[in-house]
Amino acid sequence: MKISVAAVCAVLAAPPVCAQTSEAALKQFFEGKTVTIKMDLPGTSDGVDVYPDARRPMDFDQYSARIKANGVAIHSGDAVMVTRVRLKEKLIEFQLAGGGFGTFGDDTSSSVYVPSTPKSERERRLERELKDEKDSARRREIRDEIDRLRRTREREDDRNRAVATVAEEQKRERIAQQRLRSGSRFNIRYQNAVPPGLGADGVMRALEDYVDFGGPRDAAASDRPPSAVELRQMPVNAGALHKGMSRQEVEETLGRPERESQRTEGTLNVITAVFSRGDQRIEAEFVEGVLIRYAISSR
What we know:
Layout: H1 5-13, H2 23-30, E1 34-37, E2 41-42, E3 48-50, H3 60-70, E4 72-74, E5 79-87, E6 91-96, H4 121-132, H5 136-181, E7 184-189, H6 200-207, E8 211-212, H7 228-233, H8 247-254, E9 259-265, E10 268-277, E11 280-287, E12 290-298
Helix pairs in contact: 4-5
C-alpha cells in the first residue's frame, strides 16, 4: 500500500490526542470554585478580553468603555464562584457569578411596543358612507364625526405612548439592576488557536494579574488534562451531566465505563454504561448514542 508524503507529514504534524485541551478537565477543575477578583468587571457578557500571547495583554480603552456603558457587576476584592468554563477554537470563556448580562434568555431591550388604537367600527362605517353620500350638508356632518372619532383615537394613542415611556424607563432601570447582579467573565483570547494541551495551570497563568485563585497550584492543575486514572478519582460535580449529552461528551467527563450492557425496550436499543468517579458510581443509559437517564450513587 502506498502512502503519500503529504499524508505522512499530516500525521506527523497532528498533535497527539492526549495533548488536546479538554473542556471537561477545565470545567472539572474550575467550576464551582471561589476566586477573588483583583479588578472591577463590567456588567455584561462581553466581559473583559485578555490576550496572553499578545505584547499588550489587555485593551484598557475597551475595558473602560465597557465599565462606563454597563457599570460594575463584580468589584475588585469580591470573592465569586466560577460558574462556567467554555472552550472554543481561539477562546476560553471564564464565566463568573453567572457570566454577565446579555446571555441567552436575558431581555436586553428596553423598548415597549404599543400598537396604535384601531379605528372603531363606527368610524369605518362613516368612511364608507361618506364615499356614497351626495348631500353636502350630510357630508359635512359625517366628516365632523369622523374627525371627532379620529381625535379620540389620537388622544388614546398619546395616553398609551405616555404609559409606554414610563414603562420603558422602568425597564431600563430593571435592566441596569440586572446587569449588576448577573456577574461577568474573562475571555482568554489567542491569536491562532487555544494552545494544544493547555490545562488549568495555563488558564491561571493567563489570568494571574486579574484573579487570585488562592493556594498553591497542585498536580491537578498541571498544564495538561488529567489522565484517565486521575479522572476516575475526581467526584462528579452537580450539573456535569444532563440528559441529551452525547456518549462522547459523557466519556470526556467521566472517562471510559467500567462495564456496559445492552437491552431492548420496544423498538429501542438501550445501552447501560457504568462509570466510577472517586467514591461515586454513575449508571448512564444511552439510546442512539444520546444520554436519556442517569443515576449517581455511592460505592
